[in-house]
Amino acid sequence: MGTDDEVRVVSSLEEIYDAASLETHTRARYATVRDAFVKAYGREPDAFARSPGRVNLIGEHIDYEGYSVLPMAIGLDTIVAISVNASSGKIAVGNTNEKYTPKTFESSPEQDVDAASLHWTNYVMCGYKGVFDFLKESDKASPAPVGLDIIVDGTVPTGSGLSSSSALCCAVAVAVMHALGLNFTQGEIADFTCKCERYSGTQSGGMDQAISIMGEAGVAKLVDFNPISTNDVNLPEEAAFIIGNCLAVSNKAETAHERYNLRVVECRLAAIILGLKLGMNAEEASKIETLKEIEDFVGSMSAAKAAAEEHLHEGYYDAREIEELIGVEAFMDVFSSPASKLVLSHNEKGYKLLARTLHVYSEAGRVHLFAAACAMKVDPTELGVYMNGSHESCRALYECSCAELDELVDAFRAAGALGARLTGAGWGGCAVAIVAKDAVESVLKAVHESFYSSRIAAGLISADNMATTLFATLPSSGAAILKGV
Ligand code: ADP
Ligand code: NG1
Ligand code: MG
Questions:
Q1: Which atom of ligand 1 is nearest to the CA of 161?
Q2: Measuring CA to CA, which of 1, 2, 118, 447 is 20 to 30 A from 184?
Q3: Is 71 in the pocket of ligand 2 (CB under 6 A)?
Q4: pLDDT tens per residue across span 184-214
Q5: Counting beta carbons within 10 angstroms of the beta carbon of residue 365, is it exposed (0 to 12), middle (13 to 18) or buried (19 or more)?
Q6: Active-site position among 208, 232, 406, 410
Q7: How far is the CA of 297 from the centre of ligand 3 (A)?
Q8: Catalytic residue at 438?
Q9: Cα separation, 107 vs 101, whole angstroms
């Protein structure tokens, strides 16, 4: 499978899910989604689409800077049941979880996503609009919008760094594509879902959508950008990966102006300033989007890092200093989008440019060391060292960890993991640990005791939910369309 292949269409659940999960809950889950669909719309869905969450093994906050990342798809996923409803002419969206209230939209793909509302169906509209955006952008004939009935069911914990948002956005995009009788390649879908998820308010980098669409059972993927492509990474057979949720929720859209989008802006400002200091003229520098372009300009990662150390200062830059450095026009341009305007209007502390840049360059280096170590089948202990380095950089330089995540990472290491780090955007959510395969049970038990037992006792998490809170995971398959299941 690759970027030029289409999304798999399967006719049995066995082609996607393992026997154990089908037996315990997955078959029943599909029956529940079907029942919810029949109850809401009075007939069976035409098809299902599913797209998984992901765990990023290494390469945090560098996808939007143009650097490769190394995630794998996980078994937790989002299912979308769909049917065309020609008579309603509307997009009706429901959820099996009653916490998520239903909503009905007009079918015009031109409508805006109301990011400020933070309603969960924003991600549905993102996926819906993305299909039409792509048709328009690629000059393909666009079918007239029709009514669609949709029911969503997700098992990816939300706001926890396992990318429930992209699993939802991608599953909807694939379902809508199928319902409209369209067929795009995986590369095309990965590309447009990255862009359209930005309607939700975060300036998404593309990793989550790429792996949710293109993940494959048994392998992690080195994902490259501009253009999107993936290479299989065979993980060491003697190691396993455990995910733990630190239980601090981090809803990205809600906090984007002070966290995620602020980091995107900080990196862009650093790149423009570096471009100018390195001799670009104002026009050239203002077109720089990523720190990777600075590396390309100076010819090597070490030269880019040295330039950052020479030309950027520690601590915060305020808006006035940045305006003086890059000029009013470039300043206005960086802050022209609604998302960046929000960053500017909420920012009191200023912008930390050197620390963010050093994180990006060092993390990009660790991704390649990790991939090379996997290819050379070195001792997994080395992978643990890179993962620990990544966490430290996220914590100290990128400042995207939090006390609960640091505690969980420490708990993994104390339990015998070879390494551990936050995964996903951070500021809450999950950590991922690498452990020797024969130590999986003992690490799970020790972390359960050291991190979770007091939280279960305090009512922060119910023991019933531990299966999606602390679990070993294998690389799983990417998006699929299920017909006649
Ligand atoms: P993450 O992607 O790390 O899980 P985000 O903050 O990016 O966190 O996305 C979480 C949001 O995505 C939720 O608050 C909700 O709006 C939406 N979402 C994800 N999965 C579902 C689902 N199965 N049902 C309803 N909403 C969902
Ligand atoms: P999560 O934690 O899933 O929202 C986000 C971004 C990624 C990437 C990581 C940090 C979106 C949809 N996803 O992931 O592109 O930048 O943070 O590495 O915005
Ligand atoms: Mg997300």
A1: 3
A2: 118
A3: no
A4: 999 999 999 999 999 999 998 999 999 999 9
A5: middle
A6: 208
A7: 31
A8: no
A9: 19
Q: How far is the CA of 158 from the centre of ligand 1 (A)?
A: 5
Question: What does the DSSP 8-state code read for residue 470?
Answer: E
How many A from CA of 156 to the centre of ligand 1? Answer: 8
End-to-end CA distance of the chain: 23
Task: Give, for ligand 2, the residue of 162, 204, 213 to mutate: max count of ligand atoms closer than 8 Å to Cβ.
Answer: 204
User: pTM here?
Assistant: 0.97
CA distance 309 to 311: 6
Judge if ipTM > 0.95.
yes
CA of 164 from ligand 3 middle (Å) equals 6
Amino acid in the structure at residue 201: G
* CB-based burial label for 457 (10 Å; 0-12, 13-18, 19+): exposed
The sign of the CA dihedral 174, 180, 185, 190 is negative
Beta bridge partners of 8: 480
The predicted pLDDT at position 345 comes to 93
> Is pLDDT of 242 > 90?
yes
Our answer on whether the CB atom of 200 is closer than 6 Å to any ligand 2 atom is no
Residues 6+ apart with CB under 8 A from 435: 239, 240, 241, 242, 416, 417, 418, 443
Half-sphere exposure of 355 toward its Cβ, with a 13 Å CA cutoff? 16
- The tens digit of pLDDT for each residue in 270-316 reads 999 999 999 999 999 999 999 999 999 999 999 999 999 999 999 99
Sequential DSSP letters for 153-216: EE-SPTTSSS-HHHHHHHHHHHHHHHHTT---BHHHHHHHHHHHHGGGT----SHHHHHHHH-B
- C-alpha–C-alpha distance, residues 154 and 468, integer Å: 12
Asked if the peptide bond before residue 227 counts as cis, ω within 30 degrees of 0, the response is: yes
pLDDT of residue 128: 98
| pLDDT value at 422 more than 80 | yes
161 lines ligand 2 (CB under 6 A): yes
* CA pseudo-torsion sign 209, 210, 211, 216: positive
- Phi, psi at 469, each rounded to 5°: -115, -35
Residue with CA nearest ligand 1 atom 16: 120
Q: Residue 485 corresponds to which amino acid?
A: V
Domains along the chain?
8-235+475-482 (3.30.230.10), 258-336+347-356 (1.20.1440.340), 359-473 (3.30.70.890)
Percent share of the chain, pLDDT over 70 = 100
